[in-house]
Specification:
Elements (H helix, E strand, L loop, with lengths): L4 H10 L7 E4 L2 H11 L3 E5 L12 E4 L2 H11 L3 E2 L9 E2 L3 E5 L3 E12 L4 E7 L6 H7 L5 E5 L7 H10 L4 H20 L2 E12 L4 E3 L3 E4 L8 H4 L9 H8 L3 E4 L4 E5 L2 H13 L6 E4 L6 H12 L6 E8 L4 H11 L9 E7 L2 H9 L5 E3 L3 H10 L1
Parallel strand pairs: 14-16, 16-17, 17-18
Antiparallel strand pairs: 1-6, 2-3, 2-6, 4-5, 7-8, 7-10, 8-9, 10-11, 10-12, 13-15
């Protein structure tokens, strides 16, 4: 789960890290009030789940409160398109208005979970800012790393080593190491999968300030963090993905026309691979899980069918904990009269298989049954 910049900075402050003075605004008038309170030049920053905002015009400087108001009016209610959003962009509902700082140097600081080392890795670079991706691509030697032993955690000497290797003076290195420790403590305490400060700036008066911040929280750990789960901004997600997420379903919108309903993530991925290998294109990933009751299946199928790109549907379900008759009843609930012309290919196996097939046969839908995934794919090709 992603957090907005203003939410991430609030957490950084709780752990003792410095962030710019500022305030959140949902209207142009509120942006003007915040800028007036700051009493000087400021930045108006679109709050969206995407990087690359500066180059896309989502971060703009304002010299006066009136200019901040006009900038907020231009941003609020629009959609920001960056390399991370796709051509449709994401909506801007809030802006963060922050003081302008006199920056001496821009650094990069990030923490990720690295599958290669099976550890948390703290990364830092002397070349922070909007072009850090290019730095990582063209000069990977400038991205410094410290692997963290999970038994002892991130140590102060590792922070000092990163700071010195970035070419920072000893006085700055001594101040920066505690900031790294604070970010690591936040990363662990909040079950983050990513913590990134870019840029982490050194101001002309010697302060170390998180000018931007991005935190991602592991979805599987949200049961431990109800306060963080409540911060999710569903408006930033694809509408169908948001609806599925609120229903507790695993759904990802794709670009094809074959709607797919499966249970079990492994079988779901294998099904998508088989569809793609046959020259077809899946419209979604949708896993209803092992215990798919009729209502849950109906919600899942309804979301699938709400996608206007879906022209045909494949159901590939193993009735282990889930029962095939419950799966059938749920699917039929979603096939309202206006949707009944959509071809449906069904592969069922397991508990109450015969009952499930009987329910489909009595429904009047255009159903084709398959005993194997290969047969199901061939049936799809013929629809």
């Amino acid at each position: 789960m992603k957090l907005h910049e203003y939410q991430s900075k609030a957490l950084l402050s709780m752990y003792g890290m410095l962030v710019p003075r500022g305030g959140l605004a949902a209207t142009p008038a509120e942006a003007r009030q915040v800028a007036k309170r700051l009493g000087g030049p400021c930045y108006v920053k679109a709050q969206v789940y995407a990087g690359g905002r500066a180059k896309a015009g989502g971060i703009r400087k304002a010299a006066t409160p009136e200019e901040a108001e006009g900038t907020a009016a231009a941003l609020l209610g629009s959609r920001l398109v960056t390399p991370q959003t796709g051509p449709e962009g994401v909506p801007i509902h809030r802006v963060l208005v922050e003081e302008s700082l006199e920056v001496e140097r821009e650094l990069y600081l990030g923490i990720v979970i690295d599958g290669g080392t099976e550890s948390v890795v703290v990364m830092a670079s002397q070349s922070g800012g909007i072009d850090v991706e290019a730095v990582a691509r063209e000069h990977p030697e400038l991205i410094l790393r410290q692997v963290v032993d999970p038994l002892v955690g991130f140590q102060a000497y590792q922070g000092r080593r990163l700071a010195i290797d970035m070419g920072l003076p000893a006085s700055i290195a001594r101040s920066l190491a505690p900031q790294m420790l604070a970010l690591y403590e936040l990363f662990i305490a909040k079950d983050c999968s990513l913590a990134e400060i870019n840029p982490l700036v050194i101001t002309r008066d010697g302060r170390i300030v998180a000018l931007d911040a991005k935190l991602n929280v592991d979805d599987d750990a949200l049961f431990r963090h109800e306060d963080l789960a409540a911060l999710r901004d569903w408006s930033q997600l694809d509408p169908l993905e948001a609806k599925a997420g609120q229903a507790g379903l695993s759904y990802v919108k794709l670009e094809g026309d074959v709607g797919c309903l499966m249970n079990g993530a492994g079988m779901a991925m294998a099904t998508l691979d088989a569809i793609q290998a046959a020259g077809l294109s899946p419209a979604n990933f949708l896993d209803v899980g092992g215990a798919g009751d009729a209502e849950r299946v109906a919600t899942a199928m309804s979301i699938l069918l709400d996608d206007p790109s879906v022209r045909r549907v494949l159901v590939n379900v193993f009735g282990g904990i889930a029962r095939c008759d419950d799966i059938a009843r749920g699917i039929l609930q979603a096939f309202t009269p206006e949707r009944q012309g959509i071809p449906l290919v069904v592969r069922l196996l397991g508990t109450n298989l015969d009952e499930g097939k009987a329910i489909f046969r009595a429904s009047g839908l255009r159903v084709r049954f398959a005993d194997t995934l290969l047969e199901a794919i061939q049936a799809l090709q013929e629809t």
